[in-house]
Design a protein that fits this description.
single chain, alpha/beta, Taq DNA Polymerase, Chain T, domain 4, 4 domains, DNA-binding, DNA polymerase I, 5'-3' exonuclease activity, DNA/RNA_pol_sf, exonuclease, nuclease
Length: 911
DNA sequence: TTGCTTACGTA
DNA sequence: CGTACGTAAGCAAT
């Protein structure tokens, strides 16, 4: 071919280097001692995972460790732990450490977590039966010294000071765990008045409260140091005991045996049998994948970032195989068509530099990779021919393309007149299906996890898609984008294998990818709003806020910040001396339920005004939030998140259009602000009625429940008549409400306690209600217990489309975590199956609308509801289309009931 | 400035 | 002591 492009080749490779000439720097840490310090330094109530596992000690310890590694850059590291077995010290002196309070339960559970962190960091840790951590440290410090190493010992136990030499420094925590003092020989002498090797002599005389070793009464560090100095050590002091005058001398003579015992006990052993050699302590690259897992589980996001930033990438584990191989082809202007032609119909990986929000996007660069060969195109300076070639290729459904996070890429390219239609794989969606509980799926993380390679980045930590300034930045950005494209291409087949192994292939290709394409259109369309109406509401709610606030101030005679829970607590529980409500971490709750209860008890007008203020300020906030997000086209373009909800649901952000109020009249007024856009006839909403209960009926196979739905009766009335043993006509509204609450609660793992609380009945009655329910609907109970059992066995739950949620905590030792996981296991198949069905419905609706050439379009999805903008003359067709395609989205043992409404506003369309 | 906590809207 | 989300304000630690 005559116009074959020039090719320049850039090889990118990583080198692993070791530096054999450097003297060893050894860091030895007393694990228990430092973890214990961390436990008391950081408030336990501020450090817990959402499931309730305390993590303050893990956090403090890990933070300290990271700092030490960063600041000291050790070549060798070891953490020693105590083991509970009796030591030579307790054998010689049963009272040893006898005054120590029992280890707090919340601390004990954190030690294994610390060890998990160490494992991920590939730092050896050791605990030996019958040996204290300090003895292990003493032994290894001795070994390391013999190797000529510089040794740092990190311990909160002063006994380690005896190990200090010119080669050995003790890092002793002064306050918390971040403020460590370097105890060198000079520092020890300065602080205690004796050289390090004499420190145990001094401690023997003074005693050590924390070890329950009494010293000589009346002898403190000053006296002890003086004696030791005068007599050349403890032996000299003991020999001269008879000559020491005064009360102190007398006490010394009386306590000689205790002093000698103290000295025997505080001598650290330097010849412990340690199952590790010096070489075993050498630093090795961290297990980056393991770090992600452990830090994810501990919810240490900041700490993880700190850690990963600090560890140079070439040090990374298993990355030594080399970075991504990459051949950058520089195309001549006008050469794109030929380049694409030469690729045939092969699948190419696409990466896009672009940015945008709220319906205003732009793309400025793309990279296309065919295996290791990659090109980048500057979209701001593209020749006409190349632009056409690119647009034609992107829009062609028969030109398969792989992406990572296709939705923003599609928006950005669409803004340049290049819609993308051939997406066959998205490594972000694929990774989400494999690990739905993760909160981020960075390409670089996936490359590490699946390819054991590092994604090269010339720009370092610069945010993806950030604007580049300067020429060097330009070429870096292009190189990074090229690397991303190559990485996506290499990653896709590997992640696909994982997807297949997890049975999620169909979900990816037949559900998530088509849904993504629909979401692009929905987000681009946005929903029209009546700005004047919003302004009016804002003014109205604003006035209501002011009125309620004034009324509240009048009721107590002064002003307070009604938005500050802290100040409210002051007013309610101190000034007004009201009964205490439920406890929170920082005091007593002032939530709406609690305030309503307090009002029932006290009738205090402040509470009424406060509640009114809360409601009004909330509404104003919602309205203000919406006003801020109206785009230039007079519409609100939300972003649907497809990979954040662990159950498979979508979520909506910026703004969240899935939580627009509906339960109060004022809330409805906000829905009036969402209107049909110009050129369209009306809005239409279609929602599934009781989809979760129908899924419950289907999954449980409970004949009673299935019958109820097949008869098409009022579900809660029907169930109520069975549970209470009365005719349906005699089910009161109170009975119906109880049944409704319970039915829904069951899908969330509701307990009798929770039910009683919600219904305001006592626990016994709630328990009875649940028993009656399960007597009549035994299939439901069997299903619920079965689903947890199976999840415990398999490690995951599954929806009707095979979407999995992994729940390792089902076998946790921690009851709170386990209970939480059980409730997730109960809910995930139900909520997740509903999500599956709605997604399938969206695809069917969009497909059929396209086939029938309708101009009406999907705008929103609110979990069980679809909102459509209906083009003129299409209302009838769209109504039946939605009814049919939504009802037909799944084949359950009960019908899927769909209700449809239409109107000028979202409120009118709702029902 | 940042992250945590509390509170509250939806399904 | 009921699941799944997102947002905003106050507040304490930087």
């Amino acid at each position: 071919m005559s116009n074959a492009p020039d090719e320049t080749i850039q090889e990118v490779s990583a080198t692993a280097s070791l530096d054999p000439g450097t003297p060893a720097r050894v860091l030895l840490i007393d694990g228990h001692s430092m973890a214990f310090r961390a436990y008391f330094a950081l408030p336990v109530e501020n450090f817990a995972t959402t499931s309730g596992q305390a993590t303050n000690a893990v956090y403090g310890f890990t933070s300290m460790l990271i700092n030490l590694i960063r600041d000291e850059d050790p070549t060798h590291v070891l953490v020693a732990f105590d083991k509970s077995a009796p030591t030579h010290r307790t054998q010689a002196y049963p009272e040893y450490k006898g005054t120590r309070a029992a280890t707090p339960e919340e601390f004990r559970g954190q030690v294994p977590l610390i060890q998990q962190v160490l494992d991920a960091l590939r730092i050896p840790h050791v605990g030996i039966e019958g040996v204290e951590a300090d003895d292990i440290l003493a032994t290894l410090a001795t070994v390391a010294q013999a190797e000529g190493a510089q040794v740092l010992i990190c311990s909160g136990d002063r006994d380690t000071l005896q190990l200090v030499t010119d080669q050995v420094t003790v890092l002793y925590p002064r306050k918390g765990v971040s403020d460590l003092v370097r105890m060198t020989p000079v520092a020890v002498e300065e602080k205690y008045g004796v050289p390090p090797q004499r420190y145990p002599d001094l401690a023997a005389l003074v005693g050590e409260t924390s070890d329950n070793l009494p010293g000589v009464p009346g002898v403190g560090p000053k006296t002890a140091a003086k004696w030791i100095g005068a007599h050349g050590g403890l032996d000299g002091v003991i020999a001269a005991a008879g000559e020491i005058r005064g009360k102190a001398g007398e006490n010394l003579r009386e306590h000689l045996s205790q002093v000698m015992l103290n000295r025997q006990l505080n001598a650290l052993l330097r010849d412990v049998e340690v199952p590790l050699t010096f070489a075993d302590l050498a630093r090795v690259p961290i297990d980056r994948e393991g770090v992600h897992e452990v830090f994810d589980a501990l919810q240490f996001t900041v700490l993880r970032d700190r850690l990963l930033k600090m560890i140079p990438q070439e040090e990374d584990d298993q990355v030594s195989a080399g970075a991504l191989g990459m051949t950058t082809t520089v195309l001549e202007p006008g050469g794109l068509a030929a380049w694409l032609q030469a690729r045939g119909g092969r699948m190419l990986a696409l990466a896009v530099d672009g940015a945008g929000a709220r319906g205003a996007w732009d793309a400025w660069r793309v990279a296309l990779a065919d295996g290791e060969e990659v090109i980048t195109l500057d979209l701001t300076a593209l020749e006409e021919a190349d632009e056409q070639a690119l647009a034609g290729w992107l829009v062609d459904t028969d030109r398969p393309v792989l992406v990572h996070d296709g939705k923003p890429a599609a928006h950005a390219l669409a803004a340049r007149g290049m819609p993308v239609h051939g997406v066959r794989g998205d490594t972000l969606l694929a990774a989400y299906l494999c690990h739905p509980d993760q909160r981020s799926y960075d390409l670089s993380d996936l490359v590490l996890r699946y390819l054991k390679r590092e994604l090269p980045s010339a720009q370092g930590e610069q945010a993806q898609g950030a604007l580049d300034l300067g020429l060097a930045g330009e070429s870096d950005a292009a190189a990074d984008l090229a690397a991303r494209a190559v990485a996506i291409g290499e990653l896709a087949p590997v992640v696909d294998t994982d997807v297949r192994a997890r049975g999620a292939e169909d979900l990816l290709h037949r559900v998530e990818l088509p849904v993504q394409e629909i979401l692009v259109d929905m987000e681009a369309a946005g929903i029209a709003v009546d700005g004047d109406h919003l302004d009016g509401l804002a003014a109205q709610f604003d006035a209501a806020v002011g009125q309620a606030a004034q009324a509240a101030y009048d009721a107590i005679g002064h002003e307070v910040n009604l938005g500050s829970p802290k100040q409210l607590q002051q007013v309610l529980f101190e000034e007004l001396d009201m009964p205490k409500t439920r406890r929170t971490k920082t005091g007593y709750t002032t939530d709406a339920d609690a305030l309503a209860e307090l009002f029932a008890k006290t009738q205090h007008p402040f509470l009424e005004s406060l509640l009114a203020h809360r409601e009004s300020i909330r509404l104003r906030q919602t309205v203000d939030g919406l006003r801020k997000t109206v785009a230039a086209d007079g519409r609100i373009h939300t972003t649907f998140q497809q990979t954040v909800a662990a159950t498979g649901r979508l979520s909506s952000t910026d703004p969240n259009l899935q939580n627009i109020p509906i339960r109060t009249e004022e809330g409805y007024r906000i829905r009036e602000a969402f209107v049909v856009g110009a050129g369209y006839e009306c809005l239409l909403t279609a929602d599934y009625s009781q989809i979760e209960m129908r899924i419950m009926a289907h999954l449980s196979g409970d004949q009673g429940l299935i019958h109820a739905f097949n008869e098409g009766e009022d579900l809660h009335r029907f169930v109520g008549s069975r549970v209470f043993g009365v005719d349906q006509a005699d089910v009161t509204s109170a009975m119906r409400a109880k049944i409704k609450a319970m039915s829904y609660g069951l899908a969330y793992g509701l307990s009798a306690f929770g039910l009683s609380k919600q219904l305001g009945i006592d626990v016994g009655e709630a328990r009875g209600l649940m028993e009656d329910y399960f007597d009549r609907f035994g299939g439901v109970r069997d299903y619920l217990t079965g689903v947890v059992e199976q999840a415990r066995r398999d490690g995951y739950t599954e929806t009707i489309l095979g979407r999995r949620r992994y729940l390792p905590d089902l076998v946790s030792d921690n009851r709170q975590r386990r209970d939480m996981a059980e409730r997730m296991a109960l809910n995930a198949p139900i909520q997740g199956s509903a999500a599956d069905i709605v997604k399938v419905a969206m695809i069917r609706v969009a497909d059929r609308a396209r086939r029938e050439g309708l101009a009406s379009r999907l705008l929103l999805q609110v979990h069980d509801e679809l909102v459509v903008e209906v083009a003129p003359g299409e209302l009838e067709a769209v109504t039946s289309l939605l009814r049919e395609e939504m009802a037909g989205a799944a084949d359950l043992s009960v019908p899927l009931d769909v209700s449809v409404g239409s109107g000028r506003t979202w409120r009118e369309a709702g029902h």
